[in-house]
């Protein structure tokens, strides 16, 4: 309708681009949009993509998309609070994974048409 896309539709489009890019690099999709509740007074968390790399590492991926890289770009928009929510969601996810695999947190930053995969962008500590 008039070329208007909702924020959710734009997010899904960005995640699809990121997933395609990561699959081309040999990663396999495990789960998409894994959500956990936050509890009283705490926001919940969501992991956009969970994949496995060729070495079996479980990769939790945050996808960030911006129209351009002005004001720091997509990757710069992931603040400490967002990282804490991602780590909490990953910890919850891992409660049902046995044996525990090696894990890492990656970011796929999409600035306009440019896509950048930042491996091990941050850690759980």
Automatic annotation (TrEMBL):
GO molecular function: endonuclease activity; nucleic acid binding
Domain of life: Bacteria
SUPFAM superfamilies: Restriction endonuclease-like (SSF52980)
Keywords: Endonuclease, Hydrolase, Nuclease
Protein's UniProt keywords contain Ribosomal protein: no
One Pfam family from the record: UPF0102
NCBIfam families: PRK12497.1-3, YraN family protein
Similarity comment: family membership: Belongs to the UPF0102 family.
Protein name, UniProt field: UPF0102 protein HNQ51_001982
Protein species of origin: Inhella inkyongensis
């Amino acid at each position: 309708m008039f070329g208007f896309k909702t924020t959710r539709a734009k997010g899904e489009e960005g995640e699809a681009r990121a997933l395609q890019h990561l699959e081309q690099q040999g990663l396999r999709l495990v789960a998409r949009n894994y959500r956990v509740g936050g509890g009283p007074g705490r926001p919940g968390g969501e992991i956009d993509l969970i994949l496995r790399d060729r070495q079996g590492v479980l990769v939790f991926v945050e996808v960030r998309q911006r129209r351009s890289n002005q004001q720091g770009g997509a990757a710069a928009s992931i603040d400490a609070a967002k990282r804490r929510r991602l780590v909490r969601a990953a910890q919850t996810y891992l409660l049902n994974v046995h044996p525990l695999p090696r894990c890492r947190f990656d970011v796929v930053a999409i600035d306009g048409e440019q896509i950048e995969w930042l491996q091990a962008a941050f850690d759980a500590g």
